[in-house]
Amino acid sequence: MTSERGLTLLEVMVALVVLSLVALGYLQLFQGSHRLVTAAREWSRAVAYAEDASERARLSGPSLLGTPAESLPGGFRREITSRPWQPGLRLVTVTVFLPAGGRFSLDWLTRDQPDGQPGAAPQRLPGGEP
Fold first, then answer.
1. pTM (2 d.p.)
2. Which of 17, 39, 102, 108 is the most buried (most CB within 10 A)?
3. φ, ψ for residue 95 (rounded to 5)?
4. In angstroms, what CA-CA distances link 107 with 58, 74, 101, 128?
């Protein structure tokens, strides 16, 4: 019997299979994390677009509330709606539609415009924004 040192072909092939399975697991992990980062980036942009519309509506007053849906960069779309909520209050909703089919809505309450002040901007109520 000879005492040769080293690995047999079978041992090397088994080691390669095990290493390949581990590498495949890591690739799937990286792909999943990339998908999550992309989705988080889309949601962050949707929130930013909704907050932008909220500030513009607050500053522009009721003139912005009746505008039609607008297309935004990156395939996003934004709508601003307003409806009566309780006497003297209106519920304003900004809805941003994501390119992948999701949507993000931002609601807040404003006081109805007094009859004598047609150009005054609506006031945001304390605690009206979720």
1. 0.65
2. 108
3. -115, 125
4. 12, 23, 20, 8
